[in-house]
C-alpha cells in the first residue's frame, strides 16, 4: 500500500507524457484534451459520470471516430472501434492506448470515489495521458507521478466567458427570467421551488437532481436547452455541477447549506465555484453568466468563495484491489476464516477488509477511501455461502445503502444467487405493476425501483449466466423513466383542460407494444399508438 504505482506493471513499462489541463469551469480545458483524443489512433476517455461518458462517445462517433461506450450498466460496441468512453471505475489498465483522457481529476480527493481516479491516473497504459480538472489538484498529481517517472506538463486555462457575481438577491419570484437556474439541495425543496416559480410568472421548469434516472436528467436538460420548449427555467441540485451541457444565464442559490449524509454544512469553495461556473456557457445564447442568492445573508459567502482559489488537494484516495485482499486472506487464513465460537459469527470479508484497513501503511500522499457503504454490504453478504470474489463483487455494486428498497433488492439478489446460482428478475419484480406516481412519496419509491433495476443490470455484466434477464430489466428501466417524466409533466402548471403527450412517450410506443404501454399510460390514443 506504500507504493501503489507498482500495482500497474504495464503502465510502468512506458514513460508516459502527461499533460495537465487545469482551469475553471467553462475554460475549454476538456475540449482541448478531447481534440487530441479524436486525433489519436487509439484511446480512452474516463469520466466521473455515465452522462459524460455517453456524451463523449457520441461526440467521437459523430466526428467519424468509432468509439465504444462502457459504464457499469451499459455496453455499446461500435464495429472497428479503437476508442472507448468509460466511467472512471471501468477504466481498463491492461490495454495499451496512444492517448487517454481523465476528466475532473480533482476527484482524486473525494473520500468515497477518489481511489478510482487514483487507479486511472497511475494505471492507464497510454503514450499520452491528458488529465483535466481544477488547479487545486496540480501539486498532488505532480507528487504522485514523481514515482512513476512520467514527464508532466501543466497547461493553465482561463474562463472563456465572464461570470458576474450580482450585488443584489433575486427578490421576488416574479423576477425569474428565461435561462435561470435555481439551485437547492433536497428533492422536496426542488419541487416546492418549481411550484413557486410556475405560480409566480410565465415560466415552466425542468428539474435535475441526483436521484432522477440519468436518462430523465438528460431529457430534462435537453428540454431546458431547447428554445422551442415550454420549459425555460431549471430547478436543480448540485447534480448540475458536472456532466450536463446547460445553457444557463443566471445561477440562483436558494441556500448555501446542504446535508452531506452526515450533517448540514456550508458549501465548500470548490462546490460553490463548480455550480456557479455553470452560468454563461461559451458559444451559447447566454455567453455572460450571472450568479446570486435568494437570501441576502448568503451574498458575502458567495462573493468570497468566487474570489478564492480552491484549497489545495493534499492526498489522493486509495483502496486495496481484490488481489491484495486475496493475498492478505491467504496469509492470515487461520485468523480470518474460522467461526468465533463465543459470538457464533464467521470473520470473512467484513472483518478481512476492516482488519486490512486497520493494518495498512500508506504514503503521506494517500488516504484510505471511506468504505463504510462497502462494509455495510460486506456485513450482509458475509452471512451467505458465497466465495470471497463473489462477495467482493457484491460490495463493489452501486447499491444505495441509505435507500431501503435498493438495499432490499441487493439482499434478495444475493440470497437468490447464493441459494440457486441464478436470479430471475420476475422472482422479485412483477412487470406491469408500475404506475405514474401520484404523490411525492410515490415518486421517491419509483426512483428506488429504478435503482434496483439498475443494480440488476450491473450484476448481469459481472455474473452474466446467473442474471439472465438484463433485457427485461432494461425495458422496465425505460418504463420507469417514462413514468417519472410523466409525473414531471403532470406536476407542471398548465391551463385548465390542457394535456400534452410527451414526445418521449410517443418514441417509447414505437419501441414497445402499445397494449403494454396502456397499462402505464391510459391516455394513449390511436395516433400516439
Give your account of this protein's structure.
There is one protein chain. The strands form 5 sheets. The protein has an 8-stranded mixed β-sheet with strand order 4-3-5-2-6-7-1-8, with helices on both faces. Strands 9-16-13-10-12-11 form a 6-stranded parallel β-sheet, sandwiched between helices. With 529 residues, it is an alpha/beta fold. Residues 334-347, 495-504 and 508-529 have low confidence and may be disordered. The protein has 19 helices and 20 strands. It is globular. The longest helix is centred in the C-terminal third of the chain and has 23 residues, at 440-462.
Task: Give me the number of helical elements.
Answer: 19
Largest sheet: 8 strands, mixed
Helix content: 40-55%
**Could you say which overall geometry the principal axes of the C-alpha atoms support?**
globular
The number of distinct β-strands equals 20
Task: Name the average pLDDT.
Answer: 88
- The Rg value, from CA coordinates, equals 24 Å
Task: Report the span from N to C terminus.
Answer: 59 Å
Strand content: 15-25%
Helix-strand makeup class: alpha/beta
List the uncertain runs: 334-347, 495-504, 508-529
User: How is the largest sheet built, in terms of strand order?
Assistant: 4-3-5-2-6-7-1-8
Oligomeric state of shown chains = single chain
What can be said about this structure in brief?
The protein is globular.
Topology:
Elements: H1 9-12, E1 17-22, H2 29-39, E2 43-47, H3 50-62, E3 67-70, E4 75-76, E5 83-87, E6 96-102, H4 114-123, E7 125-133, H5 138-146, E8 151-156, E9 163-165, E10 180-183, H6 187-200, E11 204-208, H7 214-225, E12 231-236, E13 250-253, E14 257-259, E15 264-266, H8 269-276, E16 289-293, H9 299-307, E17 316-318, H10 322-331, H11 333-336, E18 339-340, E19 345-346, H12 349-359, E20 366-368, H13 372-381, H14 388-396, H15 404-420, H16 440-462, H17 470-491, H18 503-511, H19 514-520
Helix pairs in contact: 12-13, 13-14, 15-16, 16-17
Amino acid at each position: 500500500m506504500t507504493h501503489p504505482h507498482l500495482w500497474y506493471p504495464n503502465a510502468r513499462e512506458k514513460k508516459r507524457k502527461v499533460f495537465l489541463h487545469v482551469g475553471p469551469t467553462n475554460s475549454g480545458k476538456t475540449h482541448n484534451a478531447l481534440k487530441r483524443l479524436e486525433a489519436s489512433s487509439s484511446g480512452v476517455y474516463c469520466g466521473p459520470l455515465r452522462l459524460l461518458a455517453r456524451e463523449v462517445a457520441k461526440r467521437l462517433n459523430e466526428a467519424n471516430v468509432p468509439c465504444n461506450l462502457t459504464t457499469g450498466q451499459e455496453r455499446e460496441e461500435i464495429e472497428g472501434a479503437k476508442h472507448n468512453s468509460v466511467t472512471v471505475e471501468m477504466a481498463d489498465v491492461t490495454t495499451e492506448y496512444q492517448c487517454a483522457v481523465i476528466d475532473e481529476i480533482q476527484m482524486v480527493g473525494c473520500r468515497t470515489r477518489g481511489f478510482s481516479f487514483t487507479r486511472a491516473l497511475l494505471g492507464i497504459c497510454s503514450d499520452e495521458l491528458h488529465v483535466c480538472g481544477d488547479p487545486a489538484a496540480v501539486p498532488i498529481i505532480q507528487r504522485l507521478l514523481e514515482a512513476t517517472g512520467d514527464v508532466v506538463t501543466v497547461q493553465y486555462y482561463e474562463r472563456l466567458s465572464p461570470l458576474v457575481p450580482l450585488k443584489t438577491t433575486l427578490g421576488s419570484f416574479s423576477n425569474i427570467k428565461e435561462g435561470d437556474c435555481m439551485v437547492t439541495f433536497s428533492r422536496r425543496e426542488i419541487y416546492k421551488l418549481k411550484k413557486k416559480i410556475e405560480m409566480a410568472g410565465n415560466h415552466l421548469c425542468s428539474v435535475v437532481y441526483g436521484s432522477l434516472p440519468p436518462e430523465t436528467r438528460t431529457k430534462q436538460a435537453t428540454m431546458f436547452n431547447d428554445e422551442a420548449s415550454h420549459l425555460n427555467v431549471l430547478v436543480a441540485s448540485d447534480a448540475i455541477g458536472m456532466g450536463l451541457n446547460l445553457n444557463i444565464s443566471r445561477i440562483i442559490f436558494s441556500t448555501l447549506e446542504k446535508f452531506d449524509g452526515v450533517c448540514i454544512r456550508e458549501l465548500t469553495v470548490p462546490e460553490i465555484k463548480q455550480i456557479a461556473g455553470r452560468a454563461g456557457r461559451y458559444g451559447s445564447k447566454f455567453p455572460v453568466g450571472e450568479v446570486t442568492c435568494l437570501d441576502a445573508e448568503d451574498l458575502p459567502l458567495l462573493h468570497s468563495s468566487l474570489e478564492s482559489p480552491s484549497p489545495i488537494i493534499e492526498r489522493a484516495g486509495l483502496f486495496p484491489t481484490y488481489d491484495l485482499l486475496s493475498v492478505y486472506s491467504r496469509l492470515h487464513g487461520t485468523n480470518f476464516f474460522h467461526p468465533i465460537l463465543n459470538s457464533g459469527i464467521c470473520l470473512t470479508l467484513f472483518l478481512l477488509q476492516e482488519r486490512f484497513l486497520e493494518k495498512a501503511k500508506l504514503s503521506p500522499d494517500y488516504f484510505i477511501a471511506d468504505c463504510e457503504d462497502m462494509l455495510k454490504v460486506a456485513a450482509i453478504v458475509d452471512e451467505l455461502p458465497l466465495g470471497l470474489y463473489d462477495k467482493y463483487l457484491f460490495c463493489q455494486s452501486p447499491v444505495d445503502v441509505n435507500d431501503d428498497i435498493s438495499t432490499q433488492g441487493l439482499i434478495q439478489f444475493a440470497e437468490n444467487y447464493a441459494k440457486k446460482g441464478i436470479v430471475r428478475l420476475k422472482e422479485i419484480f412483477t412487470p406491469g405493476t408500475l404506475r405514474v406516481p401520484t404523490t411525492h412519496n410515490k415518486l421517491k419509491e419509483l426512483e428506488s425501483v429504478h435503482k434496483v433495476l439498475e443494480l440488476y443490470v450491473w450484476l448481469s455484466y459481472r455474473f452474466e449466466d446467473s442474471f439472465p434477464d438484463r433485457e427485461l430489466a432494461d425495458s422496465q428501466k425505460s418504463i420507469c423513466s417514462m413514468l417519472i417524466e410523466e409525473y414531471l409533466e403532470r406536476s407542471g402548471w398548465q391551463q385548465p383542460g390542457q394535456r400534452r403527450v410527451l414526445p418521449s412517450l410517443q418514441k417509447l410506443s414505437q419501441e414497445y407494444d402499445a397494449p403494454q404501454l396502456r397499462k402505464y399510460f391510459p391516455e394513449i390514443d390511436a395516433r400516439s399508438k
